[in-house]
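Q: What would this chain look like folded?
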Amino acid sequence: MKEYDFYIVPTPIGNLGDITLRAIEVLRSVDVIACEDSRVTQKLLNHFDIKTKCISYHKFNEKERIDKFFELLNDGKKIALVSDAGTPLICDPGAVIIDELRKSGFRITALPGANAVVTFLSQIPRADEKFTFVGFLPKTQSQIEGIVNKYKYSDIVFYESPNRIMKTLEFIKGVRPDCHVAIGRELTKVFEEIVTDEISKIIEYFNSGMIKGEIVGMVYRKQAENTLIDLDDKIKTLQDKNFKAKDISIILSSLFDINKNDVYKRVLEL
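A: My prediction, written as structure tokens:
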């Protein structure tokens, strides 16, 4: 089996049984495990009787840890990177060290494994495979509304915390009052729950009790064929850039999955 210097190792998002055999093997074989919170990772290691040493690596010490990692690797040590749950670098730290290691020619590999987005999307209805993942939503109303407006013609997938989800749903409703959303929480755990409905009904449903567990959500896209009028500003922007009607119809139909002839007719009407 080919050896690497640095391993990116996914960990379970809830159910410990979801860890892979290869992940266990790597975590046992490396010299050091870099983790966000050693208390969280240690519970996983204890469960599988893994004795490997842990060192902290999180968003607040990413840059200062680079020298330590280089020292270990230059001494011939092997390192595994894990996050508290799921796949590292997906809304978790790791990008800084990976960039530095690749520049320096170290051998890096990533193991397949648990990911909340994929687990969520695999059990909700969708029109096709296209979606926009925005990670954790920002905190302010204007920022959230900006994202919902920007990607209204795409299914928007996001992470959110249980203490903020109700306010976030209200912000989304303010922009898209008739939209449908899907919400998943406690994925892979005993109390896993997936709900899909109109946003007003989802808000009403969750208002009846406390929401627990990390959340993955999706705002279903706006149907483009019913919203040609919303493209007027985009058409005018392209016209101001001296694009011809034919070019505008090709560009906007490709971006928003709208019939090219319908866009062309709209361009001629303006």
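The chain has three domains: 6-114, 117-222, 225-269.
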